[in-house]
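Weekly puzzle thread! Below is a chain. First person to post its structure in token form gets bragging rights.
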Amino acid sequence: MDMAEARAERRLAAIVIADIVGYSRLIEIDESGTLGAVKALRTAAIDPLVSEYRGRIVKLMGDGMVIEFASVVDATACAIAIQKAVAARQSDVPAERRIILRIGINLATSSLMMATCSATASMSRPGWSSFVLRAACWFRGPHTIR
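Winning reply:
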């Protein structure tokens, strides 16, 4: 066993992956309006709920995000609260312009290494293709989710 293996810490984590359904179509219709609506939803609903349920946004992509929770109960409750808040904030938006989130939750073990400042997370779920995330400096070293 080398020094990196000796310093590994394993823990259970609930990983929430969310993306916007039809994002490319929404951007094509109205890029600035869509980007503004996504930012407004994050600021007013998503970010406060992630904090309230003790989550941590690990990665943001154009149409999605990866959020880590210590508890699958908090992850599930937060996902439900986000879906309700996003729907409520868009009740007056025409159906073809609404932002709809697709959310998946995966319970995984994570291995934290304290050596470097780069991260790799990969996971697969039954029925889903493999999801690979490369990030830098969100974790203190390589981060693998299995």
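Puzzle host: Confirmed. Bonus trivia for everyone else. Confidence is low (pLDDT under 50) at residues 112-146.
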